[in-house]
Amino acid sequence: MPEKPVFPLRIFFDGACSVCSREIEHYARLDRDGRLIPVDISAADFDPQPYGISLDRFMYELHAIDAEGRVYRGVESFWAIWQAFPNSTFFGFLGRAVTLPIIQPLARLSYQVFARLRPYLPKRKSDCASGTCRIGKPK
């Protein structure tokens, strides 16, 4: 895995994806120290240009960018997110597990399968009337 992230960590997620939104909402609720900044890439005002990453690339897999500009993609994004919870035994275990030589390729493969299936998952509806969800912001 790459270097540990320098916080805050911006997490670029598809707010219209029900699975993606629930996952990021979960981390945002646990984040008491402001280490995570959710960024909804499905929002009409999201501009990928400053990050040098295309919207298609952002949409394909989860991205996280730390305070020093390091980019984490896919499984590495989750690893970086879990680093925001240094006192969590569970997230610490997950972070160590995905770096193991046997688990890492399986985790990457599993994430690639999920990334390909994600566009076919249910979209958010009732709680995101505008088509996007602004996690951490008043509705």
- Portion of residues in beta strands equals 5-15%
Topology as a string of helices (H) and strands (E): EHEHEEHHH
C-alpha termini separation: 36 Å
- Lateral arrangement of strands in the main beta sheet: 2-1-3-4
Structure summary:
The protein is of the alpha+beta class and 139 residues long. Helices cover 37% and strands 12% of the residues.
Description of the molecule:
- This protein has helices at 18-30, 55-60, 75-82, 89-97, 103-117, and strands at residues 9-13, 36-40, 63-65, 71-73.
- The chain has five helices and four strands, in the order E-H-E-H-E-E-H-H-H.
- A four-stranded mixed sheet has the order 2-1-3-4.
- The chain has one domain (9-120).
- Strand 3 and strand 4 form a beta hairpin.
- It is globular, with a radius of gyration of 15 Å.
- It is α+β, with helices and mostly antiparallel strands.
- It starts with 8 loop residues before the first strand and ends in a 22-residue tail after the last helix.
Compile the SSE list and pairings.
Elements: E1 9-13, H1 18-30, E2 36-40, H2 55-60, E3 63-65, E4 71-73, H3 75-82, H4 89-97, H5 103-117
Parallel strand pairs: 1-2
Antiparallel strand pairs: 1-3, 3-4
Task: Provide keyphrases for this structure.
139 residues, alpha+beta, 4 strands, 37% helix
